[in-house]
Design brief:
Arc Repressor Mutant, subunit A, disordered C terminus, two-stranded antiparallel sheet, six-stranded antiparallel β-sheet, 2 domains, about 40% helix, alpha+beta
């Protein structure tokens, strides 16, 4: 039964954040009568919210669950200062993506208002073969995933998008040799993506940090070097945040957040779960003695 609820939730994406009952039924392939019941159950649990215009959106409780995961959310918080530094230098698009099935899932992005065309959104996906971030993640993934991506078909968005297995395998070899990926006009002819891997504890590739800049034929080396420095900074901060010997009392706080040292020490001193601290006292003027 759970998979049917998930099909309802998966009907929503970055391009379709608000859906009617009919649209949810069409997107999920579930009959309207069954979809209505599933939606009511999800709404009751706070996983969907109904709006006055009779459309639905994902509920804030999903964000609450996601904010407790040690994966994308903690990584995003740790990486954000470095992503901001890259964006400040490039003044175009800077983004952070993680592997999700056959796609790269973008968990953060910073953009300048007059920047070049970029198809990514926070929470949006792009097939691995079609973006520089995806090529980085795929280059360091298992060979089985590469074969699966090729078997699933390589959609061409432009004449420059990788469209065959041999092309993809050659591109992945270049990424491993050079340490970064370049995707010139793969999604839009005016745009060029450059990305590098972000490694975590143990040397595994956690994410890809990249930029999208004008496809003007200029050198990519300066961008790659800037991204390498940012990736190294993120890796250092991940190593500080990651604690393999966390006991039950600390609830993995250091692996989840990047906060001030005093804040982390305070949270780890609590006997109770920090998510169950109870109500905070009301704020107001100090009592008159």
């Amino acid at each position: 039964m759970l998979h049917r609820h998930l099909r309802v939730l998966e009907s929503f994406d970055a391009w379709h954040p608000f859906l009617t009952l009919t649209e949810i039924a069409d997107a999920s392939g579930i009959p309207p009568s069954s979809a209505h019941r599933l939606i009511a159950e999800l709404e009751h649990e706070g996983l969907l919210e109904r709006l006055p215009d009779r459309t639905y959106r994902l509920g804030v409780r999903l964000w609450e669950f996601a904010s407790r995961t040690p994966g994308a959310v903690g990584l995003r918080e740790i990486a954000r200062p470095w992503l901001g530094a890259v964006h400040e230098r490039v003044r175009q698009h800077a983004q952070l993506g993680v592997l999700s099935g056959r796609d790269v899932l973008f968990i953060d992005r910073m953009s300048t208002r007059d920047a070049v065309v970029n198809a990514t959104l926070i929470g949006g996906r792009i097939p691995l073969h079609a973006s520089s971030s995806g090529l980085v993640l795929l280059a360091y993934a298992d060979a089985a995933l590469v074969a699966d991506v090729i078997a699933g078909g390589l959609r061409r968005y432009t004449d420059h998008t990788i469209g065959t297995g041999p092309e993809l395998r050659a591109a992945l070899r270049r990424v491993r040799e050079e340490g970064y990926a370049v995707a010139e006009g793969h999604i839009h002819p005016e745009s060029r993506g450059i990305a590098v891997p972000v490694t975590g504890p143990g040397g595994t590739v956690y994410a890809a940090i990249g930029v999208v800049v004008p496809n003007d034929g200029g050198s990519t080396h300066a961008y790659a070097e800037l991204l390498r420095r940012a990736a190294a900074g993120i890796a250092r901060d991940l190593a500080v945040a990651y604690r393999p010997d966390v006991d039950e009392r600390t609830h993995g706080i250091r692996s989840l957040v990047s906060g001030s040292r005093r804040s982390l020490e305070y949270l780890e001193s609590l006997d109770a779960d920090p998510h169950e601290m109870g109500e905070l006292p009301a704020l107001g003027p100090a009592p008159v003695p």
